[in-house]
Amino acid sequence: MGEVVMTYKVNPHTEVEDVDPEAIASTVLGLADDVYDVQAVEIKPLAFGLKFVQVHVKMNDGPGLPDAFEAKMAEIHGVGEIEVLSMGLI
């Protein structure tokens, strides 16, 4: 079984006021464990002063692991839409 490297775009929730991308980024970094190797978290401009969080994570190529990581990120306060930007086997 190989490993998968995924890049996510984590958008702030549009109906939550005062969403802090820095807080989202630090919480995502805290999701790293034996299964998920969060390699990089970047805050990037979106539009009109809004920002999104780009997450690079490496995990084993197992069934349901990407979905489980997305579910963990979705539980973070202020997280809205999560989009997969890229996925590749290594």
Give the topology, please.
Layout lengths: L2 E10 L8 H9 L6 E10 L5 E10 L4 H10 L4 E11 L1
Antiparallel strand pairs: 1-3, 1-4, 2-3
Describe this protein with a few key phrases:
90 residues, four-stranded antiparallel sheet, elongated
Q: Stretches where pLDDT falls below 50 for ≥5 residues?
A: none
β-strand amount = over 45%
Shape-level CATH architecture: 2-Layer Sandwich
| Distance between the ends | 10 Å
The CATH class designation is Alpha Beta
What is the overall pLDDT average? 94
Number of strands: 4
The fourth-level CATH homologous superfamily is Ribosomal protein S6/Translation elongation factor EF1B
Q: Write down the CATH topology.
A: Alpha-Beta Plaits
What gross morphology would you assign? elongated
Order of helices and strands: EHEEHE
Number of helices: 2
Instruction: Report Rg.
Output: 13 Å
Q: How are the strands of the largest sheet arranged?
A: 2-3-1-4
Structure commentary:
This protein is an alpha+beta fold and 90 residues long. The protein has one domain: Alpha-Beta Plaits (2-Layer Sandwich), CATH 3.30.70.60. Helix content is 21%, strand content 46%. It is built from two helices and four strands, in the order βαββαβ. It has a four-stranded antiparallel beta sheet, covered by helices on one side. A hairpin with a 5-residue loop joins β2 and β3. The protein is elongated.
